[in-house]
Amino acid sequence: MRKSQGLVRSLNPMRRHSCQCEGIRIPRLNRVSANFTQSNQVEVRFKADMEYLAAVRLITQKVAEKLMLSNNSVYDLKLAVGEACANAIEHGSPLGSENDVAVTFSWTEKELRIEIADQGTGCWIESKVGCGSDRGFGIPIMRALMDQVDFVVGLDGTKVILTKRLR
Question: Is the pLDDT at 26 greater than 50, yes or no?
Answer without folding.
Answer: yes
